[in-house]
Design a protein that fits this description.
heterodimer; A: about 450 residues; mainly alpha; B: about 260 residues; 15 helices; about 60% helix; elongated
């Protein structure tokens, strides 16, 4: 038997050292006072206890004793009557074997906990399994939402009271009551489109407006109050589809498995083999009411809209990248405040342009032309996508008009930047009340 | 005999509702003065509110309408407030409507018993009046003050108590403190921009000056969104309509000043 050559041993020994070192490093960086991959770089706000209870919740220590269900109800009827009234109207209080406060929060008042999805899973195992299964499909996903927020550059960088609202929505990964409002936890409520809109609204994801403007949404607005919401989300039960009807058919708590365009945030090949499977699933959903050909046509129209959008976005992106390589972006990354949490950025300042370079975090401390592209990509483009997907043509038109205007303005600004060349006035970018505060607080 | 009873019916009904000794109910009220005679306490509370101090005055009839039998139950509903406070598309109403409170209200308002007082979690979701006129206090700031989060001083205990009808004290305390801290960060951005403008404006030409001022106006509106988002608990208003929008305003103001200086070295 011949001896293995030396170059066999070197990579083997290196990987034996580096692989555990890598695991150790990730574990170490996750073990700080914050949470997530960059937990050592920031301190949590007190409110985070409620948005990410698994990471931050500490029970109130001032009340001692161990209590059973009826005892909890007796005190809290006086202290927080709203919670008790809600629970009394819920199925939890009407079941043969009542599900009391203590079943989800514990008995020892000094050791109470916030019910995580795992707590709900003790009874609702199927729903929890479906919900967790989302992780296989990557972002966007409810189950991965908290990780997504915590590991984002701007979340790590900004003062924590500024970014708390991010966690309020991304808390959906760890709280079933984002959709089934506590303490009634109603399935009927979660079936209605309004259950989604507290988070699914606003410039990057106007799901509320685009759905309510669509024919489906108009029918819902006109008649929805009369529909029987106790019925499962199944063929024949509802005259028009709602968010949950299409995205969570049959009540399946898995919303990520049919996602083709991934929020419209990056260009994808909609006809890849994985996406062909998803297209078939979509056509099956639409076929509850429509002819399959009509559904296929809708998907093709969506593909075409995306193609149009990306041709505009790439024009803007290439203009920006051209300016970057000519060193004409002003102020350049070197001349603006570094992101406090971003070490590579301090060593090698470089402007992030486009999705793959992480521009979704680069909406502050950037030059106006970069921010204009961010608005074009993150607001107008994503709005147009939602309009096309949900059947709201007015939003498609609005989004594309806004993109056209942005592109014009970006072209004009690029021309100005070329004209101005490399003249640099005194730097006014590095200091200011918020800029200084942000440097010290994250 | 039957016709005699029918004639008597209205009189019997009015006795049943109002009892002996009280004046007969008026079905239609014509002026605010008529209300004051029987409801002096509400009138007194109202006098200290912004409704009485701002022009045009929002008097009794503005919210309660002229129909006495529905005067209270009708005015408790959000649509009473919406018409004057910016309408459904405006930031004040929309920031509430997209919050969890607003969503529940939209779904459930027709199932609520609107004759109940605005207290003790009589309503699953709080509407405008539940918080801002808590316990029917007609000083529309005695409950939750609309301007409470505008001020530098801490949120008063009386206001915190409103939230505690449903929420644990530690939860609402942290929420309010966090909202105030977020708002202060927003103010820092606005002050940074104002300082930049103050220092640079004298050197700019009138076109650039107008652009910078316009952007500052937009910025103040975005700060208002942060405030409404924190007060009404709309994450969307605190964040997308608020903080990143302020970031954009700030860097655009800087950009304008920079561009002018580069054009005129």
């Amino acid at each position: 038997m011949s001896k293995p050559p030396r170059y066999f041993w070197i990579p083997l020994i290196l990987s034996l050292i580096l692989a555990p070192a890598g695991f150790w490093y990730v574990g170490w960086s996750k073990s700080g006072e914050g949470a997530g991959l960059y937990s050592r770089q920031w301190l949590p706000d007190a409110m985070f206890a409620y948005w990410s209870p698994t990471d931050f919740y500490q029970p109130v220590k001032s009340i001692t004793g161990s209590f059973e269900g009826e005892q909890c109800v007796a005190c809290h009827t006086a202290i927080t009557p709203g919670i008790v009234k809600d629970w009394q109207a819920s199925r939890h209080s009407k079941a043969d074997k009542k599900v009391y406060c203590s079943a989800c929060h514990g008995n020892n008042h000094q050791d109470l906990h916030m019910p995580t999805p795992e707590v709900c899973a003790t009874c609702h195992a199927t729903q929890h399994k479906q919900f967790s299964d989302e992780k296989r499909f990557g972002f966007p996903s409810h189950a991965l939402a908290m990780e997504r927020a915590l590991d984002t550059k701007h979340f790590v960088d900004k003062p924590k009271a500024e970014v708390t609202a991010c966690l309020q929505c991304h808390s959906v990964a760890g709280k079933c009551d984002s959709c089934h409002t506590r303490h009634r936890f109603s399935a009927a409520e979660a079936r209605r489109p309004e259950a989604c809109i507290t988070c699914h609204s606003g410039p990057p994801h106007p799901d509320d407006e685009t759905y309510f403007h669509s024919k489906h949404g108009q029918l819902y607005l006109a008649q929805g109050a009369q529909w029987d919401w106790s019925k499962p989300l199944r063929r024949g039960n509802y005259p028009a589809p709602t968010c949950a009807y299409c995205h969570m058919q049959d009540g399946k708590h898995q919303v990520a498995d049919k996602s083709i365009w991934k929020f419209g945030i990056q260009q994808v090949n909609p006809l890849s083999s994985a996406n062909e499977i998803k297209r078939k699933q979509w056509i099956a959903v639409c076929s509850d009411c429509h002819k399959p050909e009509m559904a296929a046509k809708h998907l093709t129209a969506l593909d075409q809209e995306r193609k149009r959008a990306w041709s505009k976005l790439y024009q803007a992106e290439s203009l920006l990248k051209g300016l970057r390589s000519d060193n004409l972006l002003y102020p350049s990354a070197k001349l603006r405040p570094p992101y406090p949490g971003d070490a590579p950025d301090k060593l090698w300042p470089r402007e992030a342009i486009g999705f793959f370079e992480g521009q979704s975090s680069a909406f502050y401390n950037v030059s106006p032309i970069e921010r204009d592209y961010f608005d074009m990509w993150y607001f107008s483009n994503l709005g147009a996508y939602k309009g096309a997907a949900h059947g709201d043509d007015s939003y498609v038109t609005k989004g594309h008009q806004a993109m056209d205007l942005s592109l014009e303005s970006i072209k004009k600004q690029a021309a100005t930047l070329h004209q101005l060349g490399k003249t640099t006035p005194a730097n006014i970018w590095l200091n200011g009340e918020y800029t200084d505060y942000n440097r010290e607080h994250n | 005999m039957r016709s005699f009873l029918l004639l008597l019916l209205p009189a019997l009904l009015s006795l049943g509702v109002h009892g002996a000794g009280t004046p007969p109910p008026k079905t239609a009220i014509g002026t605010d003065q008529e209300c004051v005679q029987c409801h002096p306490q509400q009138f007194q509370q109202w006098q200290t509110s912004a409704h009485a101090k701002k022009q045009p005055v929002a008097g009794c009839l503005a919210c309660h309408g002229g129909l006495h039998s529905e005067a209270a139950s009708r005015s408790r509903r959000d649509r009473t407030c919406n018409a004057c406070h910016g309408g459904p598309e405006g930031a004040i109403v929309h920031s509430y409507a997209s919050s969890k409170h607003g969503v529940l209200m939209r779904l459930e308002e027709n199932t609520y018993d609107w004759t109940k007082p605005l207290a003790m979690a009589n309503y699953r979701a709080p509407g405008c009046a539940y918080c801002h006129l808590h316990q029917g206090n007609h000083d529309a700031g005695a409950g939750v003050r609309a301007d409470a989060m505008n001020r530098e001083q801490p949120v008063p205990d009386g206001m915190r108590a409103v939230c505690r009808d449903c929420h644990a004290p530690r939860y609402t305390d942290r929420l309010l403190d966090n909202g105030n801290a977020g708002l202060e960060i927003g103010r820092k951005k606005v002050r940074e921009a104002e300082m930049l403008v103050r220092q640079a404006a004298p050197g700019l030409d009138s076109g650039y000056q107008a652009d910078v001022q316009r952007q500052l106006q937009t910025m103040r509106r975005h700060l208002q969104n942060v405030r409404l988002g924190a007060g009404h608990q709309s994450p969307d208003y605190q964040w997308w309509h608020g903080q990143p929008a302020l970031d954009g305003d700030l860097l655009r103001i800087r950009g304008m000043i920079d561009e002018y200086r580069r054009k005129h070295p």
